[in-house]
Design goal:
- By secondary structure, this protein is α/β, with parallel strands linked by helices.
- It has a single domain, classed as Glycosidases (TIM Barrel, Alpha-Beta Barrel), CATH 3.20.20.80.
- The chain contains 15 helices and 14 strands.
- Strands 5-4-3-2-1-12-11-8-6 form a nine-stranded parallel sheet.
Length: 437
Amino acid sequence: MRKFSDDFMMGAATAAHQVEGNNIYSDFWTMEHLPGTVYKEPSLDAVDHYYKYKEDIQLLVNAGLNTYRFSIEWARIEPSKGNFDQNEIEHYRQVLRFCHQNNVTPIVTLHHFSSPKWLISEGGWESDSTIEYFGNYSRHVVSELGELIPYICTINEANIGKQIEKIMKRMMAGANEKKSVKKQESVDVQVGLNVDLKANMEQYYRALGEAFGIDPRNVQTFISPRTDNGELIIMKCHEKARTVIKEINPNIKVGITFSLYDHQALPGGEPFVDKEQHEDFLNYLPFLQEDDFLGVQNYSRKIHGPDGVVQPDENTRVTKMGYEYYPEALGNVLRFVAKHWKKPIIVTENGISTDHDPDRVEFIERALNGVYQCIEEGINVIGYTYWSLLDNFEWQLGYAQTFGLIAVDRSTQTRYPKDSLSFLGNIKKAGLHGLKV
């Protein structure tokens, strides 16, 4: 029985704002506490990973895993423009050192959705000035911590703003036609950013403008619907960070991550698939040619017919998030990406929200079968990090979603590893023994 190579990176992922707690200088913290907020609840202490990171990484290690993808929080490092907090640098230095002490490969993300509040007040992700700001932040982090970071994802899901824009347009069209918005449409983005038009958006945006001290029409967070100019700014930020990183430490492997669905066509749906694949991924390729690896993030598929996206029927197996339960999507996406990308690929996110852990075990088994088959076909997949290590703050959806390999009682912050954690670890320790390859 063949197995994953010993140097294959296998582990789990988190994002700072979703797990650390008390990210008080970030735009998300501001939005969570606004009158009329669209967030179901504030992040507050989250799951206290800021203080309990050693316990959490140790649980990963004890399971037999060797990789941890996490983000460094820009709002902690630079809480006000141009002022860098050395205490926060030292915190992340300790996280990185703990990884190395335990033979865990750290994959660091420099930006995972949340931004400093001051950045949004300066124009946010539609402002050319953000390119220089992001470069300055990247330079500071890598100058201080680069020797401890083998892999950097500059930006998480660089295409998310464009995906949200498309969702908003579809929902507006449905509302204008007086059609009901189905569950799959209201939870359409792969990360739990619930774009619910029923909220009183006028009141919310008025409060948003006041909070950031600018015209509410100019509040451009990373997850705001994005213009073509905003798309270009994101990619220029990536290029700027890559240049800075390579100047300081050329040994660091630099990449970026994208949210990618497995787009499938029924007869007549092929033009829709071609369009989605171009907008989700192919359009970005010119900006990635000097990258060392690509981060692929996938949770489900979309089926397209002659009239566009075909919604799952009532008999379709779905996850707690409302996605179709379809672990095979990951292998299909890797094959699509590999047609256009010959350098290494890391699966930086793949997972399922469910309260029934055997469903998670099955999902992991089937998804990793797909990864293994892709490797056998010659596709250069070098790592897999499940989303997520911990049940955490799922953005606008709060704490109800459960993606984690580890449950957390937030009243005591006690950790409860799930069977799926040891299952994933056993795959790493024993290859694919017992899996149906």
